[in-house]
Amino acid sequence: MVGVLGALVPVFLVIALGAGLKRSLLTEDSHWIALEKLTYFILFPALIIVSIARADLGGVAVLEVGAALLLAILGLSAALALLRRPLSRVLGLTSPSYTSLFQGSVRWNSYVALAVSGALAGPKGLAVAAVALAVMIPALNVLSVAVLARHGARSSAAPPRMLAQIARNPYVWSCAIGALLNEINVILPAVLMTFVDILGRSSLALGLLVVGAGLRIDSLRRPHAATFLSCVLKLILLPAIAITLGVALGLRGVDLLVVAIASSVPSAPNGYVLARQMGGDAPLLAEMLTVQMVVATITMPAAVATVTYLS
Counting Cβ atoms within 10 Å, is residue 49 exposed (0-12), middle (13-18) or buried (19+)? Predict the structure, then answer.
């Protein structure tokens, strides 16, 4: 419980700081647009490249951990795609709002996952979390970009244009670069890796500040129904599916623990920046991120306790 709260509370405080800065020090929209673009095109892609390139997959049940997480994500994504029309009708969602429900339900906050995995399981936990990172980041970014390309405010129904949008997305090509560097095991100059690492680390703070700046405080008093649904799907259903798959695949101990952590963390702040850039409902997603951060203080310890019992 302490380890989970220790990772969640600082994240929540940075979001709150962003909300305060938008209303006091950095009140101009142009300030936050510039930070969004910097995070979207440079900082978070740098984090993706470094994280995947450095992932040490030795001694980890790579196939089982990857399969449990990936199958859970694909299953929930398929359900959301099949139920898009009835969900949109019942919840009163526009197409851009649906993209926020999708991102809020399937994406994961890798910062929190790494922090909690390291706090609860040490170096082995970080190694398993690196596997989760290498598996989930490419899949989730391709899925999210595809959904936004199809249903966002700037969407195009023509398949060639959709594929072009996906191919141009910096999150997708940074995943490809990181995976290539990991596979060919190229030793890059230390100066270059340190440079990219510094850029990547800065994406955490700036991404969370941008999420806070996008919050509509009044909406938190009466959250949208889609926000509550995203909490159920992301914080309860997705970890239940992933843990069940992990147990079925024979995972135990730290491997199963990290599967539980990676699947039960709140959604990712970089999804907000992606929504802003590709025409999603960014304010709704910011609301989801904030509410999920609070709810996760209850659901994440429950997921961790479940796998501790099963192991």
Answer: buried
> How far apart, in whole angstroms, are the C-alpha atoms of residue 84 and residue 72?
18
pLDDT digits (tens, 9 = 90+) for 198-208: 888 888 788 77
pLDDT at 237 over 80: yes
SS3 content of the chain, % helix, strand, coil (to 5): 80, 0, 20
Report yes or no: 50 and 193 within 8 Å, Cβ to Cβ: yes
128-152 tens-digit pLDDT: 877 777 777 778 888 888 888 888 7
Q: Which residue is associated with the tokens 């955490």? A: 204
Q: For residues 30 and 250, what is the distance between their CA atoms, to the nearest angstrom?
A: 51
Q: Buried (b) or exposed (e) across 223-234, using 16+ Cβ within 10 A?
A: bbebbebbbebb
> What dihedral angle (degrees, nearest 10) is formed by the CA atoms of 57, 62, 68, 71?
90
CATH of the domain at 180: 1.20.1530.20
The per-residue pLDDT for 105 is: 94
What CA–CA distance (Å, rounded) separates 73 from 263? Answer: 9
The total number of structural domains in the chain stands at: 1
Nearest to 297 by CA among 264, 252, 262: 264
Q: Which domain holds residue 230?
A: 2-310
Compute how many other C-beta atoms are within 10 angstroms of the C-beta atom of residue 184.
Answer: 8
* Backbone phi, psi, residue 140, to 5°: -65, -40
Q: Is the pTM of this model over 0.70?
A: yes
pLDDT at 157: 52
Inter-residue contact 209 to 55 (CB < 8 Å): no
